[in-house]
Write a structure and sequence with these properties.
Helix content is 42%, strand content 18%. It has 280 residues and is α/β, with parallel strands linked by helices. The strands form 2 sheets. The protein has a 5-stranded parallel β-sheet with strand order 3-2-4-1-5, sandwiched between helices.
Length: 280
């Protein structure tokens, strides 16, 4: 049996310092060192809770090198907490590379769950659909962003994105253009912070709502885009249903939906969801 230490993956507050869990505080107090995305930011958090620990920088530009350093410390028997600036490490933040290397080396990894902007936004959105797909940040360039959105267009679940303030207006514009203007979008901004805002509207109105108040373009965003309104099977013409069933009997689902859309001129989203029902 080895005498390796343990890597604790600790969720930290996404805004309000009270977001941290009691267990999270206990672990930060108990470990030998803390691996942090921004040591200055984490120093402030630790100071608030009266904790003083050795800090090791682990950010997107040095994660591979830092992972090796952390692994050596863990093998030497030290317990280490891995944190990011806000929320859960490895969720659109550094951490996954470290965890992967450490687990492959046979070192124990223990999650200390807590704050997550994705889950916080979903819980307060009132969206009652089955499932969601968390994509993280959309590409910075418009062409690449629209290409990604086009690939996600037929997903029959709520789409969840992170977005930065300087791209928020462009992103919701592209969401409306590519995914459709009749979907509902929830814009969750500055979650658990002083100016927390959770606003739901049609995608066609999201850009104008943001531009009406410059303050609503500040901070960190979670965007939740509901699936397009789906027609009930009885609202789709019988001939269209017949064509789709014939195609599904011979082709993979996506290919069948694509051909059925071209043949019948019915909306792709409606046929995709109907195809899923037929398959199930």
């Amino acid at each position: 049996m080895n005498n390796f230490g343990t890597l604790y993956v600790v969720a930290t507050p996404i805004g309000n310092l009270g977001d941290i869990t009691l267990r999270g505080i206990e672990i930060l107090k108990a470990v030998d060192a803390i691996a942090a995305e921004d040591t200055r930011h984490t120093s402030g958090l630790l100071s608030h809770f009266g904790i003083s620990k050795k800090l090791i920088a682990v950010h997107e530009h040095n994660e591979h090198q830092s992972a090796e350093k952390l692994l050596n410390l863990l093998k030497a028997g030290e317990d280490i907490a891995l944190v990011t600036d806000a929320g859960t490490p490895g969720i659109s933040d550094p951490g996954a590379i470290v965890v992967d290397l450490v687990r492959k080396a046979g070192v124990k990894v223990v999650p200390i769950p807590g704050a997550s902007a994705v889950i916080a936004a979903l819980s307060a959105s009132g969206i009652a659909q089955n499932g969601f797909l968390f994509h993280g940040f959309l590409p910075a360039s418009g062409a690449a962003r629209r290409k990604v959105l086009e690939a996600l267009k037929t997903q029959a679940v709520t789409l969840v994105f992170y977005e930065a303030p300087h791209r928020i207006v462009e992103s919701v514009d592209d969401i409306a253009k590519v995914l459709g203007e009749d979907r509902k979008i929830t814009i969750a901004r500055e979650l658990t912070k002083t100016f927390e805002t959770i606003h739901t509207c049609q995608t066609s109105l999201a850009s104008s709502w943001l531009q009406a108040d410059a303050n609503q373009q500040r901070g960190e965003f979670v965007l939740l885009v509901e699936t397009a309104a789906v027609k009930d099977a009885e609202e789709i013409p019988e001939e269209t249903v017949r064509v789709l069933k014939l195609l599904l009997a011979e082709l993979p689902l996506k290919q069948a939906v694509k051909l059925a859309t071209e043949i019948t001129h019915e909306k792709k989203n409606s046929l995709y969801d109907l195809a899923l029902k037929i398959k199930n």
